[in-house]
Amino acid sequence: MHSARGRRGLDRSRGSWLRRSAVGIAAAMLLPFGATVMGTGATASAAFNPAAFDFWVDSGMGPIKSRVLRAADGNTNRVVYVLDGLRAPENLNGWEIETNIPEVLARQNINVVMPVGGMSSFYADWNAPSEFFGVPAGSGSSTGSGGLDGFAGGPGKSYRYQWETFLTNNLRWALRDRLGFNPNRNGAFGLSMGGSAALTLAAYHPDQFSFAGSFSGYLNNSAPGMREAIRVAMMDAGGYNVDSMAPPWGPQWLHMDPFVFAPNLVRNGTRLWIAAASGLPSATDGPSFNTLNGMELEALALANTRAFQVRMATLGGGNAVYSFPPYGIHAWNNWSDEALRMRWLSLSRTRSRSRAGCMARRCG
């Protein structure tokens, strides 16, 4: 828990959120009506990539599938974990379903690991299986109507989600032992829920993750109104109970709040890519209810991300690159574009360093 002095500092930083919490309330009001929520974007048919393969690993949650796409040059040293959004399905990772980003990364000689599943999990180790009022899940049936699924069965309901343990223990060592992947200095990035989780992984497991990227992440989870916005979103995305994940201001809730653990990221020297768009629709975002909802959610993510940026600045953190494009909503086209921006800048910097090193050695 925080000292009184530290808690006062956090409270002062969160004070500016009072006037912005209306954005969170507005977003939450949209959620129960079947809208797109925290990491979904427009619906698309599954784009199964035959070059990727299923990689099953046993865990405390049972067997968990990941999809793996090998680097084009066959190296086993460069590895990135690609994390999904709140509605993560059980068949494929959303990045494979909705984008070609995994293929782009593999062509650039990066091994891509795509964990599958974890709807509404925030890739966290939960306190308990998700249930409401002490009624075990499975006593109802799935309706596909968001909150009505609260009593239906599903992942993380008959058992406790243990995603952080899975990613940093079970999956990490299985990739090393069975595929020869380097278990150290990997990268992780994700959208929305997955963006927050990527920062969490890097904050507490710096030997495994030396790079983390957050696209439209919720990076100030304890700000006024945020827990209730997350509560409604999780109810809509499969009928999950945020109180089963972590009680308010408990150790596990603070453990997954980037605003709180920002000092870890500075101390670790983690290379960060932090992005959120304006919430203004681009030319490819047609007029629809989903576009309106995506505008609201991205505005909320932007406010969170700006608050995190200020927090990092007060800590002297110069280890983050921030990207705030003038157009983009909470949708896959925005996140795909952001992944390309992140990768191209990284490539250009790598090439610049390579040229500088070559000049220093007087090579041809």
What keyword list fits this structure?
41% helix; alpha/beta; 364 residues; 12% strand; eight-stranded mixed β-sheet; disordered N terminus; Rossmann fold
Give a concise summary:
It is built from twelve helices and eight strands. The chain is an alpha/beta fold and 364 residues long. An eight-stranded mixed sheet has the order 1-2-4-3-5-6-7-8, sandwiched between helices.
- Compute the average pLDDT: 84
- Which regions contain 5 or more consecutive residues with pLDDT less than 50? 1-45, 140-145, 350-354, 356-364
Give the tally of structural domains. 1
Strand content: 5-15%
The CATH architecture is 3-Layer(aba) Sandwich
Main β-sheet description: 8 strands, mixed
| Total helical elements | 12
- Provide the gyration radius in Å: 20 Å
Major sheet strand order? 1-2-4-3-5-6-7-8
* Series of secondary-structure elements, N-terminal to C-terminal: HHEEEHHEHEHEHHHHEHEH
What is the name of the CATH class? Alpha Beta
Question: Which fold name is given in CATH as the topology?
Answer: Rossmann fold
Helix content: 40-55%
Shape, per Cα inertia axes: globular
CATH homologous superfamily descriptor: Alpha/Beta hydrolase fold, catalytic domain
